[in-house]
Amino acid sequence: MMIVELIDGDDFRNKLVGLGVLIPEGACPETCARMARRKYLETDVPDLESTIAELMAHTDVMLPSVRRAIEAHLLPAFELPRSS
Q: What is the pLDDT of residue 79?
C-alpha cells in the first residue's frame, strides 16, 4: 500500500511563510491566499508564482480548500499589475 502525503492548509501556510508572508498560526487556506495576494500586489513576494505553480502541479494530492483558495485569490493576482 502506498501512502500519499496530502497538501493541506498547514503545508500551504508553511510554504507562504517560508516566502516571507506573515500569516497567523492556524489561518485557513482562504486567509493564507488573501494575505499572500495582498503582499504580492503591494511589495512582491519572490518565488511566489513558481511556488504556486509547483503546488498546482500536484492538485491530485491537494485538499480542495487549498486548491479553491489558490484559484480564487492567487492565480488571478498573477495577471494584475503590481505596485512598484
A: 87
Residues 6+ apart with CB under 8 A from 81: none
* Residue 45 CB-density burial (10 A; 0-12 exposed, 13-18 middle, 19+ buried): buried
SS3 content of the chain, % helix, strand, coil (to 5): 60, 0, 35
Residue pair 6/62 in contact (Cβ under 8 Å)? The answer is yes
pLDDT at 80: 72
pLDDT in tens, 26-57: 999 999 999 999 999 999 899 999 999 999 99
Phi and psi torsions of 26, nearest 5°: 80, 5
